[in-house]
Amino acid sequence: MSRRAQNRLEKERRILEAALRVFADHGYRAATMDLIAEAANLTKPTLYQYFPGKDALFTAMLNVPRERMLDAFEGDTTRPLADQLHDFAWAYADTVMRPDFLSLARLIIGEAQRFPEIGTAYQVSGPDRLLDGLIAFMEAQRGAERLRFDDPELAAQDFWGLILSAPRNKALYEPDAVPDRAAVARYVHNGIAVFLRAYATDPQHDIARLAALIKQHDASATASAGPNPIA
Amino acid sequence: MSRRAQNRLEKERRILEAALRVFADHGYRAATMDLIAEAANLTKPTLYQYFPGKDALFTAMLNVPRERMLDAFEGDTTRPLADQLHDFAWAYADTVMRPDFLSLARLIIGEAQRFPEIGTAYQVSGPDRLLDGLIAFMEAQRGAERLRFDDPELAAQDFWGLILSAPRNKALYEPDAVPDRAAVARYVHNGIAVFLRAYATDPQHDIARLAALIKQHDASATASAGPNPIA
Amino acid sequence: MSRRAQNRLEKERRILEAALRVFADHGYRAATMDLIAEAANLTKPTLYQYFPGKDALFTAMLNVPRERMLDAFEGDTTRPLADQLHDFAWAYADTVMRPDFLSLARLIIGEAQRFPEIGTAYQVSGPDRLLDGLIAFMEAQRGAERLRFDDPELAAQDFWGLILSAPRNKALYEPDAVPDRAAVARYVHNGIAVFLRAYATDPQHDIARLAALIKQHDASATASAGPNPIA
Amino acid sequence: MSRRAQNRLEKERRILEAALRVFADHGYRAATMDLIAEAANLTKPTLYQYFPGKDALFTAMLNVPRERMLDAFEGDTTRPLADQLHDFAWAYADTVMRPDFLSLARLIIGEAQRFPEIGTAYQVSGPDRLLDGLIAFMEAQRGAERLRFDDPELAAQDFWGLILSAPRNKALYEPDAVPDRAAVARYVHNGIAVFLRAYATDPQHDIARLAALIKQHDASATASAGPNPIA
DNA sequence: TATGAATGAGCATTCATTCAT
DNA sequence: CATGAATGAATGCTCATTCAT
Q: From the CA of C135, how many Å to the nearest CA of chain D?
């Protein structure tokens, strides 16, 4: 790749990063091209040489972070069920609760009404793809007779809803009070336990294993009272 | 109250309703004072006599809809557990999935970064208050030895996450593809069943009762394959 | 008409006049809305409350001067032929050679390529309508056996071409050297004479009458050498 | 001339041609330096190395096309009068009604107010020079006692006005409805006839000869009803 | 010499807000 | 108290012009 082209790509990335920051901080309308240009350390006309307009920049910007979220999880499916769910849950949580991803999510939700394609595109390329991985995982575990259910999609959705819906909702509504990792752990660990209790073929065994993992994970001590159904 | 004051209050309400519509449809920035004035059938200067500015109108507007959502549920706690959960779930679902509430939610989430009080206020006055009711309910059921858990808040959150997180997330991101009642039913009914399986002291009995309720509810036929852990 | 409406109409006229000045002086692109607003003694947003945009203002402006040009001539067709042609010619010349109409014509011609409707509209509503009057006049004179020809439209065009094409062309190309009334008279008087010579049934009589009119007209002395075919 | 200099000159010509196209198509303001550079197949900075700015390029461009129009007519003055007028008229018409010359004329007229030298220069170098040829021709014919008049300039202008003012005016105002050759022929042939009728010493003879020429010219059939004063 | 990249200045348009009536 | 009219301050976008290479 030529020096020129490299430089151009690098600047394009700089613009996209600046755009993410500015859009996320101000919302679509309040994010002015001037602000973005300034944040990217260049002038407006230069900005316009890289992207033909605000909408284009916005949509282009939304395609950047997806990748990082995509390969969130590919595990060794022979490991203990609790271990895999634990890893999966944290991989997801650590992505989804990152401040920049939360900002982006707020932005997309806020503009979904007027940019319907964007919301759909994001949903399809982000959460939906992750869900597919989760569904595949669920089916594999059912095949291995570790989980029991009829509808793998519902199983996957239930897992998600149990571990992350509460902290994520709070985070979406209260940017200043995004739950810290300890607070998230409370929901995540509880969610895994409840999921195992409802879905596992051998809940007691898996929950015991989970408890060990949690103790390990909480070496740095959370005050959480432990997952809910201690059975 | 004098005639004058009454008139004033009524007009204020009209403004707030118009503001809700316009803000929800266009977003904060794209909602112009002109549009709001027109929607309220008055002129801009009059608008400014009722509210000192756009921000003030916005925040004032957000305090209106709370009430409707509040008294969402007050049930007879002696009825069968499955019946109560079923009613609770649908009361919640029917509120939360209404297009206007979804619009409002998108609006608040979208502006949460720049109006942090708003997000918090909404969270506290809306979802949190509902959650309180749910927590109280959970504790009552635990007292009656129908449910078993340590942390009632987690139980409540789990219930919410199981029945509504999936369709609501989709609805937030895709305004054009808000799940219809049948689609919501799939999640809600499954969620209740999974919840009972994980939390009920006598899951089999409650789930059987739930199945009857669902059959009744689905008199008008949903294609849903039934809740997940049919056990 | 209410005071308000009257005021509004008057301001609208003020804007249109300012627009004519500014557009004519600078051309379409170089005429900024700021300049027009300033010339009309108001601010840009006010301007936009009267006209929705630059294009609209431009086209609206083009509909104003037409009227003045329309009823340019309605004469007593029983008067001597030379008298009527003389009056007609000067009515036309005095309109068409006015600096503001010349500016407008330059403007329209200059923008005709990108605003094709405008050029057509102007042609139809201005020159073409005048031509219709001239054609009717020619036919009347043919009926009275004072003129002789087959095609009245060609007769009308010939008249126009003879009296005004030369000074008007010069004026269009050289705004700083617009022929003065004396210079125009040279072409107009010559043109009438040549026209009579080619078209009149009794040229000698009509041209003699014309010579008298010219002498009268030139009481204030032009240096013009008289019309061409003194015969 | 060195290879270098030759190359430079050739590129300069390419730029000027591109400029003519772009200016004529878009008008002065809407013709961007980018467009011109692209049309000339080079980059903007190179453009600026040949011409110091837009204005300079514009004025330079206007000095190019003159020559083509110059040598429009040099005839054998001993041929029949009608033949010579016919040839002259068509040579002029075919030049003046060419789409590119019309575009250029519109451009110059449109910018005449802000570039006064341009209009004058064009007038002097284009039409005026042609007029000089025409005047000389008229004088020669007067010397040969074929035409009769006092003022040769007026005679020349009358000829021009009779044959071309109508179609050219229409063409200037309506780029989308430029008269085709048949439509122009109607005016041209009529104009020559009228001119002969007013100016020729032996009109009948010349008009008869003209009629033959027209029949020949219209081998491909025009629907025109013939020139006006068939006498 | 030629070019990819950059920029200062401007322009059409909009909006929250304020007067004069 | 209500309104038609007005405005200062942006905002997205463009363009003639200039560097650095």
A: 14
